[in-house]
Amino acid sequence: MTVDTLMTNKKSWDEAAPRFFGRNPLPEYGPLAPREDELNLFGDVSQLKVLEMGCGSGHSLQYLQQRHAGELWGIDLSSVQIETAKTLLSQANPQAKLFESPMELDPGLPHDYFDIVFSVFAIGWTTNLEKTLANVHRYLKQGGTFIFSWEHPLYNRIKNTEGVMTIEKSYLEEGPYVHEAWSQPAIMQQYKVSSYLNALINAGFQIEKVVEDVCKPDEIQEHHVNGWYSLEKAKVVPTTMIIKCKKPVEAGTFYPG
Asked: Which range of residues forms the domain containing residue 59?
């Protein structure tokens, strides 16, 4: 874990938080991506214990609260985001437990506890994917579900210039990079799709579904068209990758649900 990178990203998010208030929360998974209404990856969350990695302004947790989730937990690197989420959730669910922490560190969350851990467009901010996935695996109870979305690894490798698509960087290149669409320095991580899948497998997860589809319903087109995500580019390469996996039940273990 790189402390300098974490501090850079914390500063960037503290400054940018108002711009991302309520941006692409559940039931959305990302720009121009299929929604939870269509995918139904969470299923019935009634009375389930849910934890969000990179909870942002709290709108995804609010969505699950409205679907009668039992417990709401979240962590986020940004103190501004945590305070915003606390304000948002305090009226509807004053018992929501939120922690200011990088996802690579365990801020004292219970282990073998959560039914669902999820992350919407946040996993690429981790400075150590392996540590983050190991934490998620520890937090989940046996049979628990991990769902996350992130910008598709191909998307920032291709540039659209007046309708001409060109490959700007090698898909094989992995590691940290400065995201050019941010006004303040923001360092993200680039991995191949296979690197995400193999990291999940190595962490002990069973992969159930991978979604790379593009969804362009008329009613949300204007909401998603901006300087970075465009409909024209999305016709060539997906904006978003969504993965659902499970922490398997160990052989010989009785787990009622």
From this structure: 3-246
